[in-house]
Design goal:
212 residues; alpha/beta; UDP N-Acetylglucosamine Acyltransferase, domain 1; 7-stranded mixed β-sheet
Length: 212
Amino acid sequence: MKGKIKIEHRDYTEIQYWMFDQSPALRIAIKLMQILSLPFVLPFIFLARLSAESTFRAISQLFSLVPFGIGEIIRYNFYKYTLSKLGQNVFIGFGTVLNYRDIRIGSNVQIGMYNIIHHCDFGNHVMTAEGCCFLSGSKYHHYSRTDIPMIKQGGQLKRIQIGNDVWIGSNSVIMEDIGDGSIVGAGSVVTKPVEPYTIVAGNPAKELRKRV
């Protein structure tokens, strides 16, 4: 939150988030910290780019545990040079793990703490709260046969698209595309594509209303 604000019982208090409304001095400070931390991150960047996907995942797990602002700076530097795409003004919270290098993230994105992200693309101006899981569809494991364990039957994966200007509430599980301007309520399980500018919630997530 921007500034010192006291949150009271019952009544809502208007706030602004500093990461989306940075002063020139703060932008310069963030850029300077990114430059200063780059020599530390560079060996991990080269290792992740030249090694197997499992090495990238291991480094992602390691850097997810670096706390405070320095952790966000280190994570940004690492993902900037290892992901397929990472835009400007992206903040990735403590405990969040990106599993694959082919993930694409736009600009002005805030990914909350303890998110898990599989094969997924994020647009611009996206907010995700704590504990969200972005899966590569809903067919990870085949289960039609009963003569062999499900873990040996293989499965199917696909890329998930998160549109622009999307807000995803805490502890949501996303298995399908989310259209531009949509909101996913906390604790939702999205098993069907969400149309643009739609508010959904529940398990499975269902449309509550349109934003327009």
